[in-house]
Design goal:
6 helices; alpha/beta; 13 strands; single chain; 7-stranded mixed sheet; about 230 residues; 6-stranded mixed sheet; globular
Length: about 230
């Protein structure tokens, strides 16, 4: 667990799936929390109990298994409302479309020690559900924060970026600083990325704080690569 840049007065904690380093973010406010891209994490569960969290809003940046694998576990622990794009909501219900069915193949490409760690997260039949979906873009309020959700297809059909108060951005795998977006996975589209998503990325102002789907958070020094 690591406490990151705060959002307004709210601390932000990061957890990750080992080896793959897929990021889960938790923002606490009183007895409520906002969770982005949950993974299964005992450390996160301990923090929820420590903070006295009684309910959670869960936002998914996209449908891939390593970014949704903790949804069902969180539903066992506390009342949750899961929100994502409509395409994401359709695809998380199918292990083939959410890539869980192919997770074993991913593990097989890793070193033996890494395979042993990832076996704990293996569930090739994993599926979950959304409680609310949208198409295009949507404004949402959580606690004292204004959230702007926008579909950003390219990496996957169901990708979205979560913009908080026009300054903090949860970018999933759509924008990972220093890396090119991957569009070659099933359902990915370079055309959608170039025509729909890249123009939006160009609007993110320098000085914004990015919380990507993999790796450390960062302050954007320049606009995204155009």
């Amino acid at each position: 667990m690591k406490c990151l840049y705060p959002i307004a007065d709210h601390p932000v904690y990061r957890f990750s799936m080992p080896v793959i380093d897929s990021s889960m973010y938790l923002i606490a406010a009183g007895s409520s929390c906002l969770i982005v891209d949950p993974c299964v994490s005992k450390e996160a569960e301990d923090l929820l109990r420590e903070l006295g969290i009684r309910e959670s809003l869960i936002l998914l940046t996209h449908e891939h298994y390593d970014h949704i694998s903790g949804v069902n576990r969180l539903r066992e622990l506390l009342p949750c409302r899961v929100v994502c794009s409509k395409r994401c909501g359709e695809r998380i219900k199918d292990p083939r479309k959410n890539t869980a069915a192919y997770f074993a193949a991913l593990i097989a490409q890793r070193l033996e020690a890494e395979q042993a760690v990832l076996q704990e997260y293996l569930d090739v039949e994993y599926a979950c559900r959304a409680d609310q979906t949208y198409t295009g873009e949507w404004n949402l309020r959580w606690q004292d924060l204004n959230l702007f959700l926008r579909e950003t297809p390219g990496h996957s059909p169901g990708s979205q970026i979560i913009e908080v108060e026009k300054h903090w951005y949860f970018t999933g795998d759509t924008l990972i600083p220093g890396l090119d977006v991957i569009t070659r996975l099933p359902g990915g589209s370079r055309k959608d990325f170039e025509t729909v998503t890249r123009p939006y990325l160009r609007t993110i102002a320098p000085g914004s704080v990015l919380f990507p789907g993999h790796g450390a958070e960062t302050v954007l020094s320049e606009g995204p690569d155009t």
